[in-house]
Amino acid sequence: MIRLHEPRVITPRPQLDSEPSHDWRVLGLCAQTGPVDDVWLPSKGQPARHGKAICLSGCPVIRECLLFALNSDRQLEGVWGGTSESERRVLRRKWRARKAAEAARRQAGAA
Ligand code: SF4
């Protein structure tokens, strides 16, 4: 697993221009709270509820954040899109199964 928490770092706009797909990061509530590890990266066995509560309190980019984490090839640690790692493991399995089913349906329709 990789500790990757760029969304919690306020990145200047010019630097983000080279990564337009990640512009949402500066809008996250976590960008305002800063990199507080015990909130966004709770130790193993510690609850992620504080970070999740911040996400769910109205983060304007919660959908983008969750999709980023689910689509990532890497297993991201900590809280993303209002979910904990274990919640994302379950979601990722369902998400990938749904994407595979949709691709199969599209392929069957094209044949
Ligand atoms: S959903 Fe949570 S982790 Fe994602 S950008 Fe918003 S506050 Fe940050």
Characterization of this structure:
It is a single chain. The N and C termini lie far apart (39 Å). The chain is mainly alpha-helical. The chain has six helices and no strands. It has one domain (6-110). The radius of gyration is 16 Å and the shape is elongated. The structure holds iron/sulfur cluster. Residues 7, 28-30, 54-55, 59, 61-62, 65, 79-82 line the site of iron/sulfur cluster (SF4). Keywords: 4Fe-4S, Disulfide bond, DNA-binding, Iron, Iron-sulfur, Metal-binding, Transcription, Transcription regulation. Belongs to the WhiB family. InterPro entries: 4FE4S_WBL (IPR034768), Whib (IPR003482). This is WhiB family transcriptional regulator.
Q: Quote the average pLDDT.
A: 80
Count the beta strands. Answer: 0
Beginning-to-end CA distance, first to last residue: 39 Å
Q: Give me the strand/helix succession.
A: HHHHHH
Tag the structure with descriptive keywords.
binds iron/sulfur cluster; mainly alpha; transcription; 111 residues; single chain
What's this, in brief?
Pfam families: Whib. With 111 residues, the protein is mainly α. The chain has helices at 13-16, 29-33, 37-40, 49-56, 62-71, 85-110.
